[in-house]
Amino acid sequence: MVTTIPEPPAGEAPRPGLARRLGLTRLGADLAFVLPGFFVSLFAFVLLVPLFAVSVGTLVIWIGALLLPLTLFIASGFAELSRRRLRGWGASLPEARYRRRGPGLTGLWRWVADPRRWLDLVFETVVAFPLHVFTFAVSVTWIAGATGGLTWWAWAFHLPIPDDEPMWPGEILEALTGGAAPDALTHSFAFESAFYLVCGLAFLLTLPLIMRLLASLDAAVTAAALGGGGGGLGGAEHDDRPSAGAAPSEPFAAPFTATAPAPAQGSDPADPAATTAIPTPSAEGWGWIVAGFTAVAAIAIGWPVLAAVSGVHVALAMLVVVAQAAGLILALRLPAVGIALAALAPAAAGLLASNLSTAWPWPVTMLIVQAVLVLIVALRRPWPWVLTAWALPQLAVLVVAIRVDLNDAIPNLVVCASISAGVGAIGAILRLWLLSRGALRVERSTSAELDARRRELAERNRIAQELHDVVAHSMSVISVQATTAKYRLEGVGDEAAGEFESIAESSRQALAEMRGLLAVLRTEDGEAELGPRPGLGDIPGLVEATRRSGASIEWAGETASASAPPATALTAYRIVQEALSNAVRHAPGSAIRVAVRAGEEGLEIEVVNGPSAGDAEGDPAPGAGLGLAGIADRAAALGGAVEAAPTGDGGFRLRAILPLG
Fold first, then answer.
1. 0.70 exceeded by the pTM?
2. Which residue has the higher pLDDT, 3 or 37?
3. Is the domain of 464 the same as that of 595?
4. How far apart are CA 152 and CA 154, in angstroms?
């Protein structure tokens, strides 16, 4: 007995299994991604921080000149390991692009001038370690909670717990019932085991979701900081020129993916001047790292400062600081929301502050966050956004100061306005410089492409001239000789005259097509002037012209009733032309059958020749082997297909199907 599983109805996707719905299929990958990250980051932090400190401290005695490039190289190695871990987890991350070191010891300092390596160092020492400490702690806590809760009943009776004191579950039950729960229940080991078993099940069921969130957080931060285009660690020098015709992108605004275009045609890849050795750092990554680090520092430092120094209630201080930090993060993608939060937070802090003798209404931490916000907006947005990011928070705080105490706030307001305005001006100037630099790269790339096209056109003209000299002249001579043969030679009969006329006609047709090809080669866009092209109606004439060469051809075509697009008609003509040429060349004296008709699948073309005749004069002529490949490419370009294979009796069969629609 064979049991079959019914398939779902058409159009309905199969329902995922229980393991997939619960997220268990990705739990192993998430655990393998999150847990080892802590140990890698710990090792990187312990190694890189002292090494960087020693490098900076020994620069004055030139030892740091060797240690600093080494530190950056090691940091890039750890960053590459983080990228590989992220790709192994399943995320798509472009390869990073680094400067290649130059020759000698001085070439090591090209690494020091590489922003990409500095970003790797900042990420591995400042961002990755606290991030992985957090994800590792949460994941271990969740796993321990699930394991401990599920196994509590097996080992908890060994704990030295007094019988007269209820455990934590009993205390919760007493609090919920107001002390009405009986002691037998609150002190019961069975109740405690059941409580912890439920907690363990809750931890276990939510473990896939928690690990997915932690892995996604880790992946998002890593991708934002370590993404980049081009070659990998230790790769070749890259070229950061954009493609021709592309507008210069907004600096620090576009995603961090980029690719290195190919060198211009005719350039020497080994020539150092053929590439531009200016690597582009991950601008998006820098923005997220700066904003994230500043936001975390603002919360960690600004919260106690605002509560202790300015006298704001602890809970309200937390809300205000978090709002300003969130505005800083949102300014990267939602500048309007970020600027609004950046204006409301310091205004609320000024209203809630009870100690006006210190830095008021702009605490130092909020002033720094405001300056960073203006800088980020200035690097990513045009000047109206910069002006808004600077003026709106200043006006909001000014309104608060006028309402509370303007005289004591004037020095603080002037300092904050001056610092943030200066930072915004620097950011705007840097953005304009980056834009002009990008426009210059586009201009250079466009000029290089135009030069390449001019060289290509010159090469095409040279090829056209060579074809004209080699082929067109010879075809013209053949045509003239064949046309005038019956006048120059005595005793030329009617049959021989017909042969000469056929040769002259074929040479004139070939010469006309050759001239069309030369016209295509000589035009810059590869298109010649419109002219008559052979089609389905010309196939019978092609068959008749081939018959006059002495070939035995059976014509079974229906081209008069077939209607095809010009491209299809031309391709059909070329296929028959190539098939007849191959049959005459490779199987002289064979019987040939040609059929062209419109069928259900499209335009059907079939050319079949038998074996070469034993008494045929001459041997089969060799060919270049490119004819069949050429007609296969022509048919494939139209969406058709070509089949060519020998027949069982020593002949050859070619069949093609071309679309008529």
1. no
2. 37
3. no
4. 5
